[in-house]
# Entry
Amino acid sequence: MTKDRIFITCSRGIDAYLDQEISSTGFPVLTRTKAGIETEGTMKDAMTLNLHLRTGLRVLFLIAEFSADGPEELYRKMTAIPWEDILPADGYFSITSTVDTPTIDNTRYVNQKCKDAIADRFVKMFNRRPDSGPDRDRAVVHLHWQGEDCKVYLDTSGEPLSRRGYRKIPFKAPLQETLSAAVVMATGWHDNGSFINPMCGSGTLAIEAALLGLHRPAAILRNNFGFMHLKGFDAGGWADLRKNAKAETRNRLNNRIIATDISAEALEAAQKNAQTAGVEHLVEFRKCDFADTAVPEGNGVVVMNPEYGERLGRIAELEKVYVRIGDFLKQKCRGYRGYVFTGNPELTRKIGLRTSRKMLFFNGPIECRLLEYELYGGSKRTKENNERPDSEDAK
Ligand SMILES: C[S@@+](CC[C@H](N)C(=O)[O-])C[C@H]1O[C@@H](n2cnc3c(N)ncnc32)[C@H](O)[C@@H]1O
# Structure
């Protein structure tokens, strides 16, 4: 079967984790940019990627490539694509685009041109056409136009893959599911020790950890993808993919996941989300101050995403919280690796522990760091080593 190029988009700062996932799923990484990764495969491969990827946002399947020096040439070349073989005449489609070309300063105009090209071809051939509009829950055509180079893709995801379908109640300042999955991957946790998540908020980190630990496909709860609205959708193939993935999913974890938060409302949201995700029996929830989280003897990771003053909380109060986070990690989490995800470098200095790694992420537009602390269990010498203030060399 011929393979086509597939581009998988991701949020800024996540491409390394997406790369890791694509490679371990057995697909080649042809090119990697900050915006995503190009691989190759069939439409069935695109379905597989949609089902499994934890850190990708959209799986774009390339159907045409041409040059266009302006909107009229774009229209002509879009009209030449055999849309009747791709979109059902009685269906619905929407157009999205990323445009960086001198003749255009309005992507809505480009989207309109593409929509007209598709609709006009249908009308000319059949005297009827599919509906179109802004909704992305059915067929989605994506145009990438840079300079004179146009690439036309089918967005086989439709709604972005960050919408797993379990987060019905977001609570305050939740991390996006794809970002949470990347953070869990960055900690190296894969059911190889306890996963402790104080300040769990709506539970996204703990839930993503549970899904990853079970090897459960990220999108197993979703029942709608862009590819389902294309002509020739292979419903049997999709059912087989899901069946095989379910057969490879583990039923239980070997280690504990503990999630705590001081807010009853947050915990209620987290528990409901975990229930929807089908992992509530694997996460031990408790309402408490983060410092009272009962960290089991042994090893694992402690992952915290405290407020950092951009959207919530006030800096002076947060400084005290960050000092206490340092004390908690130092005193109660020996033998673990500690992680703090934050967007405020000033506050991180208050933690007062030496970082072993600083990993760059973006939470929307906000530049963030995932700070890693090795929390040695043993001797005075290693403890002292631990307590050195943040070294700038670890950036
Ligand atoms: C930025 S939110 C965490 C968001 C979470 N990662 C998610 O995806 O939903 C920070 C959380 O810390 C909790 N929190 C604040 N102070 C706390 C404390 N002293 N002890 C425990 N939790 C606290 C808040 O209730 C809030 O849910």
